[in-house]
Amino acid sequence: xxxALATFPTTLGMALSIAVGTFSTARANESESQNPHxxxxxxxxxxxxxxxxxxxxxEETISPSxxxxxxxxxxxxxxxxxxxxxxxTDGSISFxxxxxxNAVVRxxxxxxxxxxxxxxxxxxxxxxYAELAVLWSKDETRLLMRQNDRWDTLAAEVFRFDKAGxxxxxxxxxxxxxxxxxxxxxxxxxxxxxxxxxxxxxxGRFDRGNRxxxxxxxxxxxxxxxxxxxxxxxxxxxREIRVVDTGRLxx
Length: 251
Hints:
Elements: H1 2-6, H2 13-29, E1 39-42, E2 45-50, E3 53-57, E4 68-73, H3 78-81, E5 84-87, E6 92-95, E7 102-106, E8 111-115, E9 126-127, E10 130-136, E11 142-148, E12 153-161, E13 167-172, H4 173-186, E14 198-206, E15 211-219, E16 228-236, E17 241-248
Antiparallel strand pairs: 1-2, 2-3, 3-4, 4-7, 5-6, 7-8, 9-10, 10-11, 11-12, 12-13, 14-15, 15-16, 16-17
């Protein structure tokens, strides 16, 4: 750990060195019996130490009751640690360039209840064009997570949990959106360029049942083409995500 701290850019200052040093010490010494409250607030956000992992919560992703949140895994190797960036205005930390995976965590005990395909790495939801947008249902049994950049969605997943927080189903919503959107687009395009269009999931909404509505645009990144806007309704079954209907949106 001493070698890792020595690689920190001097612009980060002592505060980040102390913070990351604390992560390592806590991780090495903890056990569930010794640390009954592994998640605690550290300046900008909640930080969890559990099973050898240190996870920092993306502050804006905390569920309505505060039971769950989406977090990013703090890297340990010296090269990655050198890329951590401290914001002195609020004490938040981000990982330049991204990379560590995200996870859905239970804040009562720091347990990971679901892995996520997104790789947003920072204590806040937005950094320039990089965004991690999260939508929880009111009863916290459904979760929509979108990782967006300037032009498209990099990852979009939907989760369904039971009342106790056990994962029932996890679906790759981005793959579904791409497939359905390109099928619609293929019926309107004749230039063979359908695969050049990428999906940008712009909004989502849960109803009172197990259905949700997604609004999406398919467009060529950086092009002047206005894109193809459509909406899709899906049902979150206990074992699968099923498309109910789709339709074109007027801009």
